[in-house]
From TrEMBL:
NCBIfam families in the record: ruvA (TIGR00084)
A GO CC term attached to the entry: Holliday junction resolvase complex
Database matches in SUPFAM superfamilies: DNA helicase RuvA subunit, C-terminal domain, Nucleic acid-binding proteins, RuvA domain 2-like
Keyword vocabulary terms for this entry: Cytoplasm, DNA damage, DNA recombination, DNA repair, DNA-binding
Any GO MF annotation of the entry: four-way junction DNA binding
Domain text: Has three domains with a flexible linker between the domains II and III and assumes an 'L' shape. Domain III is highly mobile and contacts RuvB.
Lineage: Bacteria, Bacillati, Actinomycetota, Actinomycetes, Mycobacteriales
Protein name (Swiss-Prot/TrEMBL): Holliday junction branch migration complex subunit RuvA
The organism of origin for this protein: Corynebacterium argentoratense DSM 44202
Amino acid sequence: MNMIASLRGTVLSVGLNSAVIECGGVGYAILATPQTLAEMHKGQERHIFTQMVVREDAMVLYGFADTASRDIFNTLQSVSGLGPKLALAALSVYTPQDLATRISTSDVKGLQKIPGVGKRMAERMVVDLKDKVNLYAAAPSATNDTVSSAASPATSLVTESVVEALTGLGFTAAQADKAVATVIANQPDASTSEALRAALKVLGK
């Protein structure tokens, strides 16, 4: 049973992988995707759907912008060996619709874009979830992202922060460096959250 299904309150702080929302005088720390966190700002009131994951050594609250993201987060964890960290990483790379489409169309190669998902896990996801994700599946949208090369030295702080966030999600340092360099070359004035979202799009291609 999910004891805390949603939160409505004031955003106290927002980081690259977490936020704190105050509800009734209590600050709740949530882990969420960069996309969800990018829409949250300190001092604003937000309504977030949540899922509590209880482990022997910790209780962690995950936050989602919509119920579809929360539902597929839970569905993903029905796969043996796929825990909440990997489920959140999947939603950091793909929307619920894109993720469901890749599963339902047996896009094993596409699923391996998720950090921590190898060929065996991708195949397991297809076998175990193909009949469970039809509700979310949609036609994949085309992207016109252009790959470029060098990063701007003036954005070193943004670069370091985004690379750290990406490696925290499970991408290798080499993957993170390359993706961030691509983004900064195209968007030299991007904020940390904008750069992180754009880097995830590059890594999801």
